[in-house]
């Protein structure tokens, strides 16, 4: 070796540079041919410029180019920690009931709309006999108004729960209140009214 490490102008053979950069002599020569590292003279290299050039080369190959590998790794770890924290917060909100799963809310609304539809479809069969017996239009209107109010009160009493992931929840309680056949429900109600 012709000089102390780091002194200006000192050059080292390709074997020494290969050991320093943890690569083969052929790889060092290839980097020099591509202009990645500076070559001094006849297979000899200056230590500081070669190491600095190789560090720049590695930095440019990392994601983000302007950051060192350690900064990129720290940045990625930071994003991962934040993502895990968001997931943990969302899970905690889900467990304490602050938020609900979208699918569960959609299923609950679907059950409410099915119950509403069934009861509205049953209303004419339920109210028609009583309205037909009404002697005046005002009394028929009052019967229909009462039937609508009763229907709305009945719907308000239906418990609505967003089912959890396995389908449990208030679905069974809701379905127990729902008549399976609107005509059968109307007939049963007519018997009670008449």
Helices and strands in order, then pairings?
Elements: E1 11-13, H1 14-21, H2 25-33, E2 44-46, H3 47-61, H4 69-95, H5 102-133, H6 137-156, H7 171-177, H8 182-193
Antiparallel strand pairs: 1-2
Helix pairs in contact: 1-2, 5-6, 5-8
Textual characterization of the structure:
- The protein is mainly alpha-helical and 194 residues long.
- The protein has 3 domains: 11-61; 69-99; 102-193, no CATH class.
- It is built from 8 helices and 2 strands, in the order βααβαααααα.
- The chain has helices spanning 14-21, 25-33, 47-61, 69-95, 102-133, 137-156, 171-177, 182-193; strands at residues 11-13, 44-46.
- A two-stranded antiparallel sheet has the order 1-2.
- α1 packs across α2, α5 (102-133) runs antiparallel to α6 (137-156) and α5 crosses α8.
- The N and C termini lie far apart (115 Å).
């Amino acid at each position: 070796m012709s000089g102390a490490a780091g002194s200006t102008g000192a050059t080292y053979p390709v074997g020494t540079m290969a050991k320093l950069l943890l690569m083969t002599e052929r790889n060092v020569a290839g980097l020099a041919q591509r202009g990645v590292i500076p070559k001094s003279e006849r297979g000899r290299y200056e230590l500081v410029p070669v190491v600095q050039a190789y560090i720049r080369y590695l930095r440019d190959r990392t994601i983000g180019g302007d950051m060192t590998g350690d900064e990129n790794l720290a940045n990625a770890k930071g994003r991962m920690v934040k993502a895990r924290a968001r997931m943990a917060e969302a899970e905690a909100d889900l467990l304490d009931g602050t938020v609900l799963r979208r699918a569960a809310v959609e299923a609950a609304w679907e059950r409410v709309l099915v119950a509403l539809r069934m009861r509205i479809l049953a209303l004419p069969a339920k109210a028609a006999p009583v309205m037909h017996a009404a002697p005046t239009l005002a009394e028929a209107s009052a019967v229909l108004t009462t039937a609508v109010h009763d229907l709305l009160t009945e719907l308000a009493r239906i418990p609505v729960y967003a089912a959890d992931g396995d389908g449990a929840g208030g679905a069974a309680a809701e379905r127990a209140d729902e008549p399976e056949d609107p005509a059968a429900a109307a007939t049963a109600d007519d018997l009670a009214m008449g």
